[in-house]
Amino acid sequence: MNVLPKKLTAIASTLLLGAALTGVSTLSHAQTTNPTEPVSMVTQWDKTFTQSDKVDHRKVTFKNRYGITLVADLYLPKNRGDAKLAAIALSGPFGAVKEQSSGLYAQTLAERGFVTLAFDPSYTGESGGQPRDVASPDINTEDFSAAVDFLGLQKEVDRNRIGLLGICGWGGMALNAAAGDTRIKAVATSVMYDMSRAMGHGVGDGKDRFSTADRRAVLAYLNEQRWKDEESGTYAHSNHDLYVDDKGNVTAAARTLPEVLPENPHPVLKEFFDYYRVPRGFHARSVNSNGAWTTTMPLSFMNMPLLSYASEISIPTLIVTGEQAHSRYFAEDAFKAVGSKQKELVVVPGANHVDLYDNQAGKIPFAKFEQFFKTNMK
């Protein structure tokens, strides 16, 4: 199990990144030990996709309402002229970094005429926040609104035409932000998860996996871990997808994904492994590629449902999922819950969940996303 002393998390994370990466701009000791400041600011192109010659790229930072500094990649069309453009803030998948799927989506949509911003959520990637490897339904929803704050102040952006696009677990965050932030004009998701439901009720085969007893067992397990963390002065890390046996015993793998794929793996495990753990999608700063979330991370998601106010979403909404995606039921149920009269569910034929991460299979419907945002952010 991966644990780091609480007092050393900021220093250790910086040292690890410095050893693993090149092209990192120097941060002072005061900055690296400030829990709200960026962990790093890599200046070289270190994405899992090729840089486009049709797009200008800038590394930027902005603060959220909790004072945490987020690090992001801003993409602008080279042929943008002087007119202010519509903008899209993007993040996800859950446990990924902006150098992976969200960056690819952002760069591709910038090629199609939008200003786009792919950001690392709080506590992950290059963004600030201690301890590392934490997610929060509140703070990560706020991260999207903070991205809107930033975009609305850019000279290239028409602040009355800002949308969101969330991938995987950040699809639920994007919908949650759209329910509360009236500045957002359109929202889209790709192979979305509702992370509150996923962690609170278990990801099953097209339905929730946990019984009420299972859920209570998971809560007891996580709350017991709080005492262990306090006693040891460390934050334990483990897989957030917990297993409950028929006797109510809860176990968790030490990592989100294994170092080596086991024989006869579950198809969903193989999907994720064949993206995050191989050169195709591996990135050193990605939780899914290189480690796990803090063990107690699911607690807030289990107690604070993300889509409580989905019925109040009134803006144009596009929900995209794959025909074969194990996450499809999250998308279909969210679509039913969204209150907008201008909503559309797109099921991509033959696509599994990870097919819509990097377009290796050629199945990401970029033309549909382009049409949706251009139509609804005129």
Notes on the structure:
By secondary structure, this protein is of the alpha/beta class. The protein has one domain: 3-Layer(aba) Sandwich (Rossmann fold). The protein has helices spanning 9-20, 29-33, 101-111, 137-151, 169-180, 195-201, 212-232, 267-276, 287-290, 298-303, 328-337, 355-358, 366-376, and strands at 2-5, 55-63, 69-77, 85-91, 115-119, 157-167, 186-190, 234-238, 243-244, 250-251, 293-294, 317-322, 343-348. The protein has an eight-stranded mixed beta sheet with strand order 2-3-5-4-6-7-12-13, with helices on both faces. A three-stranded antiparallel beta sheet has the order 1-8-11, covered by helices on one side. The chain has a two-stranded antiparallel ribbon with strand order 9-10. α5 (169-180) links the parallel β6 and β7. α4 (137-151) crosses α5. Residues 1-31 have low confidence and may be disordered.
How is the biggest beta sheet arranged?
8 strands, mixed
Number of helices: 13
Q: Categorize the overall geometry.
A: globular
Return residue spans where pLDDT drops below 50 for at least 5 consecutive residues: 1-31
Termini separation (Å)?
50 Å
The helix/strand class is alpha/beta
Q: What is the chains' assembly state?
A: single chain
CATH fourth-tier homologous superfamily: Alpha/Beta hydrolase fold, catalytic domain
Radius of gyration: 20 Å
Number of strands: 13
Indicate the percent of residues in helices: 25-40%
Number of domains: 1
Order of helices and strands: EHHEEEHEHEHEHHEEEHHEHEHEHH
User: Kindly state the mean pLDDT as a whole number?
Assistant: 92
- Can you tell me the CATH class? Alpha Beta
CATH architecture: 3-Layer(aba) Sandwich
CATH topology: Rossmann fold
Question: DSSP strand (E) fraction?
Answer: 15-25%
